[in-house]
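note to self: the first set is below, dont mix up w the second
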Amino acid sequence: MSKLGWVAALLLLVAVVPWQSDVAEAEPNICATRPNNTPRRIMDCVTVEGVREHQAALQAIADANGGTRFSGTPGYDASVDYVVEKLTAAGYEPEVQTFDYLAFTIDGPSALEQVAPTPTTYEEGVDFGVIDQSDGGDVTAPVTPVDLQLGPGNASTSGCEPEDYAGFPAGNIALLQRGACTFEQKAETAAANGVAAIVIMNQGNSPDREDIPPVTLTANNTSGIPVLGVTYPLGVELSEITGLEMRVFANATREIKPTANVIAETAGGRDDNVVVVGGHLDSVFEGPGINDNGSGSAAILEVAEQFANVTPFNKVRFSWWGAEESGSIGSEFYVTNLSEEELGNIALYLNFDMVGSPNYVRFVYDGDGSAFGLAGPDGSAAIENLFGTFYADRSLAFEPTQIDFRSDYEAFFLADIPFGGLFTGAEVPKTPEQVLVYGGTAGQQYDPCYHAVCDTFDNVSLEVLDLNSDAIGFAVVRYSKTTETVNGVRRGNPGGAAPAAVAEAAAVSGSA
């Protein structure tokens, strides 16, 4: 559809949503004419109505482009155009950083069948699914379990080492278990040792590792074989069948596609102490991705618009990453193409991926490693503390979330750049204990529409989206003024800042 077409669709959608108000209509005029140099002012101007306007646009774009905004498709290209248009109108000079990547698409129904000893057909989406970035293929062969460790609390390393395949019959299907190493490593190690296809079950060591593994082999996968994921209970069942022969059919294609990141930075501020703020703009192929990650990308865009009237001491660089759903490719491309000097000029990275989940928990990345054992680079603990303070000042509970490298902070972490951010949950079921704290539904995923066609404009909690949009604005203004707690760099004259602006910037707490 032409740009004119999807804009018309957007206007129609915006006209009927109930959250529009006279106050929301008036606020942009106020915020466009005053400096927003304190957290209180930026939070006054960053509104959930503004975030929802951007989410409505992304929904309209998906509707006009086959229901998806997957990187490399027209829906993603239109999403890039929309973000660029909004940034340009706000006074930025956005850069569209193009790159090619190995895109993964589902071409139709796949299949998992027991051929012998008892012919059985399993249900896609219930019993099994194609693992993201699997190669396509159709293999019928005997199944050989590889180094399985069953039961709760297990520490499976199934398929991680070449030694696991000692005596493996070449051409068989490997039954593997999640755990220890990456899925890419499991697949490539298997292929190098004569495995023709893989059935990989979830780990089963905890309640959140029972379902089909919602993971990726990443675009770096070079195994060349089909990989299906199954639930832990089905994996256990299959492991106990003598003489098992199965059909594994992954109906998928991997092909090189062009896509892009969008990057826009402030004209002012120290360019040797840059605050990078990012979230991915793409959706999965299956749906429009309005929570994942239309929530984070829309909130960042709303903050960027209101931040246009801030006088920063440190340059702020807003970023929308492409191809995250294929393995955080866009952010990796960005980081690996920076010079050593450019990397050294980045003070910190803030990541916002899924900040409006319907059955939410208020998660903060475990920067100090106190909850999960892996800490972020030096300075990450201070960022965790900043967001914790934001919630605590409002008498709101929050929890740490594990650094698991499933989002765009990975490349920054590996480059030893302090990072932090917010998350409201994805495919993990909410516990009864969490329901007592946050409300919601026990046993239901934090986002019941995670990576699904139903991740639409209605698939968000306005309450947490509103709160976290404020938190993003709060953190961006705070770090635009000083990063002393993160890297020891104190506030300094940004070059041309009026004394009044300097004095005003001293108020950096949430109540300022």
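second set (the one i keep forgetting abt)
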Amino acid sequence: MNVRPDANPLSLARRLWAKTKEDNAFNGAAALGFFLTLAIFPAMILVMSVIPYLPIKDVDRAIMDFMAQVLPSQGFEQFRQVIQQIVTEKQGALLSLGALTTLWAASTGMYAIMQQLNVTYDVKETRGFLRARAVAIGLSILFGALMLVVFSLVVLGGVAQGWVGKRFGFSEGLLAFFAVLRWVLIVLALMLAFSLTYRLAPDVENNSFRFVSKGGAAGTLMLVAASIGFAVYVQNFANYQAIYGGIGAVIVLMLWLYIAGLSLLVGAEINFLVERGGR
């Protein structure tokens, strides 16, 4: 499949659809949804267990508030129940021997992403099992640190908002500015996460890093738009609790992770077609 970088949008869309079907991206996203379901709770537990050691207050609240906005309410409830007691006290065990097991489990989803991106970029995995796992663990740590940095900035933005508000008044314009600023930081963090994944996860030589790429931007926008739409649908039109009973929240979470996986893969397909010419 050969695609010119200057191909028009309609031509690119046709080739994107063909490449997506060729790589079984929808099945790949389903696999990623499963593995991310297994990995997301250990990952969140590991990240949240570090929070009590940080000198910045309310980082945990910023993370939970964001999850409440992005995830459907039923999926968010799973997070709240699992990690509520994790952030109330310092978890020394999780930061010692238990951290190794938790980190290994958390890297499972990243390892699955690496294998699926190899399919997207039409390459075979040449890294040994231990080396590939080390990359997965390193990426998991990197993204955990990125999450803490971004939400620390969100918290500091809230502190700045309070400082400015006390001196100049809490106007609607001020509140709107800081609300937009928070989402700008979050979107930039998502784009950085996508870019780092596309650069480091697949076994591709001379794979250049681009903070802003067509695939990264498309994947980020797709994830944000799909998450908002899916949350609206679940909250207003679908009653998974009535259909699936007690596991309804897990089903909702897995569907959201499927959307996240599909967004990541579609963005990678776009980068492959546009930047590499599909060769």
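remember for set 2: Residues 164 and 248 are 43 Å apart (CA to CA).
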